[in-house]
Amino acid sequence: MLRQSLLLGIISTAALASGWAPGLYGQSSPSLVFGAAAQAQEISNEEITIYARSVLAIEPRRDRAYNEIKGIVGGSVPRVVCNETQEINRLSGNVRGIAVNYCQQAKKIIETNGLTVSRFNQLTLLQQANPAVKQRIQAELLRLQQAGQ
Fold this sequence. Notes:
Blueprint: H1 2-15, H2 45-73, H3 85-89, H4 93-112, H5 117-129, H6 131-146
Helix pairs in contact: 1-6, 2-4, 2-6, 5-6
C-alpha cells in the first residue's frame, strides 16, 4: 500500500509540467515542473525503464529541496522552473542556491541515465496525453520499486 501511494505520488508529481528540467512548483502539494513539446514517438521498453529510473532518482531530491525551501520561506514554496532563469534569479540567496543545486542534480540524473533532458520532457508530456504510455511507466515504476531499485 505504501509503495502504491509512493508510486501514485511520483506519477502525479511527474504529470504536472511546464519547463525543460524538473523543478519545484509552489502548490499545496509538491510537484515536478517539466516542459517541451511532446512528440508522439514509439517508446522502447528500455526508454521506459530509463525514464522510470530517472523519476525515482529525482523524486527524493525534489522532495528534499521542496522541504528545505518550505522551511526557509515558512509557507508557500515559490514557483521554480529550472530553465526559467528570471524566476530563479528572483529567489532569495539560500532558496536560489537550493533550487539551482536541485536543477543541476536532476539534469545530471537524467543525462547519466542515458536520456537527454528534451527526451525526458517529451516522455513526461507523452505520458500525460497517452494513457497507454502512462500505464507502461506506472508499471515500470512499480516493478523497479518492488525490485528495490
